[in-house]
């Protein structure tokens, strides 16, 4: 039985009711997942005037017929890495379209990267971003990272102190690594002093010059310049070593490695953690589920391309190539890797090496993507499909539902809680189904599917390799901070 | 649908002999004559005509083979019949009287292609046409000089010429369903 | 190989090779990887006939009369472009030539816009050469006609591989490559000729050896290893080595690839002189091959680098034959593509051949 939420009063732009306080919403016989308490099971919720008034767990006969295969309620998701392109690249995405897309994907809080134009390297730009987010009318919370270096040029530190005062939750030059080791060390120290992390895009630019796709069997056949594993591993090793040194000088220094994609680099983090280094990392849905064989035209999930012995299967041998090769929506940094690497990303999620999934949502215009593969910009528009991809893993028995929800909610929140200046802020707040707290939740139906199309995506970025594909877990409702953020058009009909 | 036989092996043989005489008669001799068979079944027919002429005139005329695949005006047939057979014209056709030989004359389009092809090889003094079967329904102003048998047909019918050299037996049949491996041979224009 | 006359009446063995007639069902030809062996044989037979046309006094047939063939070359290449244009003209097609297109990276129109414009101007068959791997697939997605790949980046050069195959068959007994050793020596890493030849020669059953300095073989060993179990239907194994003597020993065919200066990033080779000394096809190395072995090169040659002048001009070198065969092969392909079956005019499923009802492109 699909939920029939009462429409919030006073529908105004951007969408009917979006931004308005949810006056009343009741949901009976749904599967509740509370990653804070660790509890999941049949239950009912009531939202009144924006507050999660009651959470009732059902037992015995009342619980009959309710399973995790139907309507599911979870806390709203937290994305620690997305690109909303405003200011500077509004053709690709704006705060308005980005937050709408986020809500469609079940996200109620998004941390945006400073790769805008101008770069977010001083407070004025942050103010513009906040103003744009407010004007967009979405209740999705937008947080921001400041740039590590001025203009992300990798030479001098950005106005870190001022940015901290203005409320950034960390610093990153994402899209680029912090190239110079000395600058990285200074950044870790200075940011650590401010209680904020450096979020690093680990890439050895010298090894990746001219690279187009993961260096491997597929790139060899397709004649694409290879992106060696060493380029990520090398950069990660350097970052870990510099971080270890920096910690001696500033115990509050924090390093977070974002979108790791190779088994080798995840292993480095695992060992560093075992040795007591407080480094955290995350992985993306596309590195979990897609592989470099997609560039050759395969479209099977990464776990379907893994042989019984843990080695990658050959898509040519398996006649698995069903789509046109060289699809530019598959060009991403870091590149899609082998099925074995994807399996390593999953293993990292399961053993806690990576405690969060981030989307690295990177919308691009058709102009930038509808070109030859080697000339296309990197990036996948993924904030709306992240849940569907994780649910595919759950459906395949690779990831328990509870863990899938955790890496979208409590996992990233815990990472943020590890950053001293952020720990007390909303960014790190517990994401659970807590009675009396402002309603911040997602309702999705695992029994219902939706087809990813240019029309069904709310983001301006249609550069998704999943276009044309059906995903399960249609999002029916997203409430952020007590206000309506997204409502499925069909679900609202009485 | 059953096919009906309209010419037996013997009738074909007699027609070949008659046409071979007609060809020589029209030329008032064998001087300057050459036979060119149109692939596929026109080729063995041209061979047989040359053999018959040799028998009663004592002269072996030059014989060639012509594949008109590259001269067709309908490329959509390429997919079904991409196989090209040989064109071999081992003589100089400038100034020669070339008798084109084909199994079935229908719309006339094949002959038009054959003439175009021939003229790319040289400038014959004259081109004549000998066919085993004329089934009517011309779409171009083309006529045969020598005809083995006139067979009035409807457009739904298929005339199939079988020759021993290719099909293992000599006969001509008419039917409604095309069961041959080479559809063009049967319903060819 | 001479064309036997049909005047004898008996059907020559050469033309009776195919068991079942194959029809041509590819709307585009971007690489040899999707072409089956029977289809390759069809191309070879059609090329035979085109060679027959080229031997006539009038080297022309009206097969593509009124059809428009447009060459769109983003990479300068006079010889290949002229070869395609000659082929098109020999089939009586109208030829439009864009010799030095500027890519969207520098300035100028995007590839997609250029193709849409050309289509509006009547282009039916697009012969494309591009410096970025995969560009023809993008073209094929937006172009309503046929795309014939004249070389894309490092990825593929199907017409070259097919003319190479044709040339090899001309010189081997019965035109049979099975078990014959073919050695390709040069800058394999950056070579679309090498990659396409891997597909066609492993389909032909040849004993293929790719050879070059380790820096220019990167990734190929991984490919050879993946195929070593014979797991790819229709394709056999091949060898990768930097031991040029092992590669050339008892070879039936020796092919040198140009050391492509313009594609080499710094640091891949100490010098061209060192390459010539260690890998160049000189008379001494070529003598390791079988006495009747042929020497091939896709051209243009850097004489003195990958191939010694005396070897390039020796009787064993069939380089000019390759050029002549190139026109015939390209005529055959233009002919087959132009006549591609109506069903193939829709959005062709990119890979699946036998399977019907494949999923549509996920773009």
Main sheet overview of chain A: 7 strands, mixed
Judging from the principal axes of the Cα atoms, what is the shape of chain C?
A: globular
- What structural class do the secondary elements of chain C suggest? alpha/beta
CATH topology annotation of the largest domain in chain C: Rossmann fold
DSSP summary: helix tally of chain C: 12
Which percent band covers the strand fraction of chain A?
15-25%
List the quaternary state of the chains.
Answer: heterotrimer
- What is the number of beta strands of chain C? 9
CATH superfamily of the largest domain in chain C: Aspartate/ornithine carbamoyltransferase
- Average of per-residue pLDDT values of chain C: 85
- What's the gyration radius of chain C in Å? 20 Å
Helix amount of chain C, in percent?
A: 25-40%
CATH superfamily assignment of the largest domain in chain A? Metal-dependent hydrolases
Percent range for helical residues of chain A? 25-40%
The helix count of chain A comes to: 15
SS elements, strand count of chain A: 16
Brief summary:
The complex is a heterotrimer of chains A (494), B (189) and C (363). With 494 residues, chain A is an alpha/beta fold. Chain A is built from 15 helices and 16 strands.
Give the helix/strand layout.
The complex is a heterotrimer of chains A (494), B (189) and C (363).
Chain A: E1 24-34, E2 39-48, E3 51-57, E4 71-75, E5 77-82, H1 95-104, E6 107-112, H2 123-136, E7 141-144, H3 160-166, H4 181-193, E8 197-200, H5 205-208, E9 213-214, H6 217-222, E10 226-227, H7 229-249, E11 254-257, H8 263-274, E12 279-283, H9 285-289, H10 339-351, E13 356-357, H11 366-369, H12 386-395, H13 401-406, H14 410-417, H15 420-423, E14 441-451, E15 470-480, E16 483-487
Parallel strand pairs in A: 1-4, 5-6, 6-7, 8-11, 9-10, 11-12, 12-13
Antiparallel strand pairs in A: 1-2, 2-3, 4-14, 14-15, 15-16
Helix pairs in contact in A: 1-2, 4-7, 7-8, 8-10
Chain B: E1 4-7, H1 9-27, E2 33-38, H2 42-57, E3 63-66, E4 97-105, H3 109-121, E5 126-134, E6 146-150, E7 158-162, H4 164-167, E8 171-175, H5 183-187
Helix pairs in contact in B: 1-2
Chain C: H1 37-54, E1 68-73, H2 78-90, E2 94-98, H3 111-120, E3 125-130, H4 135-142, E4 146-152, H5 158-171, E5 181-185, H6 192-203, E6 207-211, H7 220-227, E7 239-241, H8 244-248, E8 253-256, H9 272-279, H10 283-286, E9 294-296, H11 309-312, H12 319-338
Parallel strand pairs in C: 1-2, 1-3, 3-4, 5-6, 5-8, 6-7, 8-9
Helix pairs in contact in C: 1-12, 2-12, 3-4, 5-6, 5-12
């Amino acid at each position: 039985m699909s939920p029939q939420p009462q429409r919030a009063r006073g529908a105004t732009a951007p969408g009917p009711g979006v931004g308005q306080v949810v006056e009343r919403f009741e949901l009976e016989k749904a599967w509740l997942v509370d990653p804070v308490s660790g509890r999941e099971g049949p239950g009912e919720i009531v939202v009144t005037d924006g507050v999660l008034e009651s959470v009732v767990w059902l037992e015995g006969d009342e619980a009959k017929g309710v399973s995790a295969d139907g309507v599911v309620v979870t806390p709203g998701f937290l994305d620690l890495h997305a690109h909303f392109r405003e200011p500077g690249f509004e053709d690709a995405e704006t705060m308005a379209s980005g937050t709408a897309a986020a809500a469609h994907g079940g996200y109620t809080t998004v941390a945006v990267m400073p790769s805008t134009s101008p770069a977010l390297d001083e407070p004025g730009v942050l103010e513009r971003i906040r103003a744009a987010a407010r004007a967009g009318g979405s209740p999705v919370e937008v947080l921001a990272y400041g740039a590590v270096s001025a203009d992300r040029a990798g030479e001098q530190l950005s106005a870190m102190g001022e940015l901290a005062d203005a409320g950034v939750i960390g610093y990153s030059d994402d899209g680029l690594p912090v190239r110079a080791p000395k600058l990285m060390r200074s950044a870790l120290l200075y940011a650590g002093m401010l209680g904020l992390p450096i979020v690093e895009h680990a890439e050895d630019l010298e090894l990746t010059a001219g690279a187009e796709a993961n260096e491997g069997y597929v790139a060899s056949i397709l004649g694409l310049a290879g992106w060696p594993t060493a380029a990520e591993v090398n950069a990660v090793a350097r970052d870990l070593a510099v971080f270890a040194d920096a910690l001696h000088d500033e115990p509050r220094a924090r390093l977070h490695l974002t979108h790791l994609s190779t088994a080798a680099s995840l292993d480095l983090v695992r060992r560093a953690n075992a040795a007591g280094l407080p480094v955290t990392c995350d992985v993306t849905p596309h590195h979990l589920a897609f592989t470099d064989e997609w560039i050759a035209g395969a479209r099977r999930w990464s776990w379907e391309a893994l042989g019984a012995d843990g080695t990658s299967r050959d898509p040519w041998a398996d006649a698995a190539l069903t789509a046109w090769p060289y699809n530019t929506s598959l060009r991403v940094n870091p590149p899609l890797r082998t099925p074995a690497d994807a399996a390593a990303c999953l293993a990292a999620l399961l053993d806690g090496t990576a405690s969060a999934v981030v989307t690295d949502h990177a919308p691009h215009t058709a102009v930038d993507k509808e070109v030859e593969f080697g000339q296309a910009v990197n990036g996948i528009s993924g904030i709306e499909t992240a849940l569907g991809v994780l649910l595919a893993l759950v459906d395949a028995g690779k990831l328990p539902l509870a863990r899938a929800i955790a890496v979208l909610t409590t996992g990233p929140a815990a990472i943020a809680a590890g950053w001293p200046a952020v720990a007390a802020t909303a960014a790190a707040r517990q994401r659970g189904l807590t009675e009396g707290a402002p309603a911040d939740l997602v309702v999705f139906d695992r029994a219902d599917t939706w087809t990813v199309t240019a029309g069904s995506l709310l983001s301006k970025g249609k550069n998704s390799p999943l276009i044309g594909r059906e995903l399960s877990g249609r999002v029916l409702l997203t409430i952020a901070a007590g206000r309506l953020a997204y409502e499925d058009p069909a679900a609202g009909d009485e | 649908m059953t096919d009906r036989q309209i010419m037996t092996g013997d009738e074909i043989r007699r027609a070949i002999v008659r046409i071979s005489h007609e060809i020589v008669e029209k030329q008032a001799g064998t001087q300057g004559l050459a036979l060119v068979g149109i692939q596929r079944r026109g080729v063995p027919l041209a061979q047989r005509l040359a053999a018959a002429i040799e028998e009663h005139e004592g002269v072996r005329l030059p014989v060639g083979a012509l594949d008109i695949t590259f001269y067709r005006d309908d490329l959509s047939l390429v997919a079904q019949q991409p196989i090209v057979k040989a064109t071999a014209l081992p003589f100089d056709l400038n100034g020669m009287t070339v008798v084109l030989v084909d199994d079935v004359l229908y719309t006339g389009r094949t002959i038009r292609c054959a003439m175009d092809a021939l003229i790319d090889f040289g400038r014959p003094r004259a081109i004549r046409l000998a066919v085993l079967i004329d089934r009517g329904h011309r779409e171009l102003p083309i006529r045969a000089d020598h005809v083995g048998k006139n067979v009035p047909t409807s457009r739904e019918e298929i005339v199939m010429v079988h020759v021993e050299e290719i099909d293992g037996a000599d006969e001509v049949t008419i039917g409604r369903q095309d069961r041959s491996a080479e559809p063009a041979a049967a319903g060819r224009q | 190989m001479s064309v036997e006359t049909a005047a004898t009446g008996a059907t020559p063995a050469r033309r009776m090779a195919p068991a079942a007639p194959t029809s041509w069902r590819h709307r585009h030809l971007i690489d040899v990887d999707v072409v089956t062996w029977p289809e390759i044989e069809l191309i070879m037979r059609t090329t035979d006939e085109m060679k027959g046309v080229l031997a006539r006094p009038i080297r022309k047939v009206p097969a593509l009369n009124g059809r428009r063939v447009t060459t769109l070359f983003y990479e300068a290449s006079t010889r290949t472009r002229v070869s395609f244009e000659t082929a098109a003209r020999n089939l009586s097609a109208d030829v439009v030539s864009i010799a030095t297109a500027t890519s969207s990276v520098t300035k100028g129109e995007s590839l997609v816009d250029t193709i849409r414009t050309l289509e509006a101007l009547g282009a039916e068959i697009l012969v494309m050469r591009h410096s970025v791997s995969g560009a023809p697939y993008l073209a094929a997605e937006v172009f309503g006609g046929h795309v014939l790949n004249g070389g894309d980046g490092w990825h593929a050069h199907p017409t070259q591989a097919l003319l190479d195959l044709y040339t090899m068959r001309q010189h081997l007994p019965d035109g049979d490559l099975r078990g014959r050793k073919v050695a390709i020596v040069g800058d394999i890493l950056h070579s679309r000729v090498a990659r396409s030849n891997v597909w066609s020669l492993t389909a032909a059953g040849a004993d293929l050896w790719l050879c070059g300095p380790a820096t220019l073989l990167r990734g190929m060993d991984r490919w050879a290893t993946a195929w070593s179990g014979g797991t790819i239907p229709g394709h056999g194994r091949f060898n990768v080595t930097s031991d040029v003597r092992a590669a050339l020993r008892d070879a039936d065919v020796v092919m040198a690839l140009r050391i492509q200066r313009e594609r080499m990033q710094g640091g891949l080779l100490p010098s061209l002189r060192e390459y010539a000394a260690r890998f160049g096809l000189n008379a001494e190395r070529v003598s390791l091959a079988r006495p009747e072995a042929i020497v091939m090169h896709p051209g243009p040659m850097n004489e003195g680098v990958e191939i010694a002048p005396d070897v390039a001009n020796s009787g064993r070198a069939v380089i000019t034959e390759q050029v002549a065969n190139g026109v015939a092969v390209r005529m055959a392909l233009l002919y087959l593509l132009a006549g591609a079956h109506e069903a193939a005019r829709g959005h062709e499923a990119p890979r699946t051949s036998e399977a019907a009802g494949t999923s549509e492109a996920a773009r």
